[in-house]
């Protein structure tokens, strides 16, 4: 639509592509006339969907069964684009559209009510104007119920590995969609699931396998689980076991007196803390020594990293009875007295 202002200007509002072309201005009076030609180009801007400057965009979206899901398709362009959704059964819905379960709002937003498993499909939004068209492909996945990640054992742990023996750290987790699990090693390196090296294997089930653990692999391991709903972490401290080392024990034969008590000391350290057991002559095992005869007593320290033992020789000395306070050889007494 155009109109004249005064005698020299033509004003046109809300340009359309049809307004493009040549315009001629003619000035005429009794003395003659004059003309001037103008060429008008109308520039159209192709549609841009959700601010994404691409002809075709693919995005994945998740929804919970029986819920309501809204998918945006906001299109901008010159002239204003027309928005249309192509449904999985190849039905075309132009905005606005109002159905009992499917609604296409005026701004292009697709609303699906009472989500069904059969809605797992591709929904395509097309925005078109004279400048071109853009397309948004939405891959909708319907889930039974969303659950944030949760460890089966939510507590931090301390594991003591046997030196050189393959060890596993368990970080089993539940969640929907199934969480992605990753591990941070003591040196700060992150491993995702399915990584295998000469020293480590990360399984998809949350198990970290450590081959031939030694002191270099001891430290803090951090397990992380993430899905669309949440993110959690837990800490597992790995210590490499130390075989028991007996620190204090008799290095020479020990002499005991028959009938009297005797203490034998056997102190050890290790990781985990060792248990101590004594084997008496004859093979009987006791928690602590009971000295009642001579022979070799074996102290054994044990943990899951190994065993250590020492042998202590005990000699029992016996003395013949001896009366210490003897009465005099001749005793005199008076008749009727008590002495």
From TrEMBL:
Highest taxon, organism lineage: Eukaryota
Xref: InterPro entries: Cell_Adh-Cytoskel_Orgn, Ig-like_dom, Ig-like_dom_sf, Ig-like_fold, Ig_I-set, Ig_sub, Ig_sub2
Domain Ig-like: 46-141, 149-227, 244-313
UniProt xrefs under PROSITE patterns: IG_LIKE (PS50835)
Gene Ontology MF terms: axon guidance receptor activity
GO CC terms in record: axon; neuronal cell body; plasma membrane
GO biological process: one example: synapse organization
UniProt xrefs under Gene3D superfamilies: Immunoglobulins
Protein name as it appears in the record: Ig-like domain-containing protein
Organism: Strigops habroptila
């Amino acid at each position: 639509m155009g109109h004249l202002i005064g005698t020299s200007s033509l004003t046109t509002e809300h340009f359309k592509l049809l307004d493009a072309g040549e315009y001629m201005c003619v000035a005429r009076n009794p003395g003659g006339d004059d003309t001037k030609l103008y060429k008008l180009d109308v520039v159209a801007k192709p549609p841009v969907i959700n601010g994404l400057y691409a002809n075709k965009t693919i995005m994945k979206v998740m929804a919970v069964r029986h819920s309501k899901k809204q998918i945006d398709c906001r299109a901008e362009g010159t002239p204003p684009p027309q928005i249309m959704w192509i449904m999985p059964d190849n039905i075309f819905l132009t905005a606005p559209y109002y159905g009992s379960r499917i609604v296409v709002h005026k701004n292009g937003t697709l609303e699906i009510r009472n989500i069904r498993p059969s809605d797992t499909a591709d929904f395509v939004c097309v925005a078109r104007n004279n400048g071109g068209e853009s397309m948004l492909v939405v891959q909708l996945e319907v889930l039974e119920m969303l659950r944030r990640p949760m460890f089966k054992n939510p507590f931090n742990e301390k594991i003591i590995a046997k030196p050189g023996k393959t060890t596993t750290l368990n970080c089993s987790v539940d969640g929907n969609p199934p969480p992605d699990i990753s591990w941070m090693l003591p040196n700060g390196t992150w491993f995702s699931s399915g990584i295998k090296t000469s020293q480590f294997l990360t399984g998809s089930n949350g198990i970290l396998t450590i081959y031939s653990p030694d002191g270099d692999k001891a430290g803090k391991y951090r397990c992380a689980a993430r899905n669309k709903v949440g993110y959690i972490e837990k800490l597992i401290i790995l210590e490499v076991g130390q075989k028991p080392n007996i620190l204090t024990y008799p290095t020479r034969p020990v002499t005991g007196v028959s009938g009297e008590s005797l203490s034998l000391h056997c102190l050890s350290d290790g990781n985990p803390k060792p248990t101590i057991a004594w084997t008496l002559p004859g093979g009987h095992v006791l928690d602590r020594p009971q000295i009642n005869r001579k022979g070799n007593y074996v102290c054994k320290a044990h943990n899951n990293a190994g065993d250590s033992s020492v042998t202590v020789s005990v000699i029992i000395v016996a003395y013949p009875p001896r009366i210490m306070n003897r009465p005099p050889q001749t005793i005199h007494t008076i008749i009727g007295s008590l002495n």
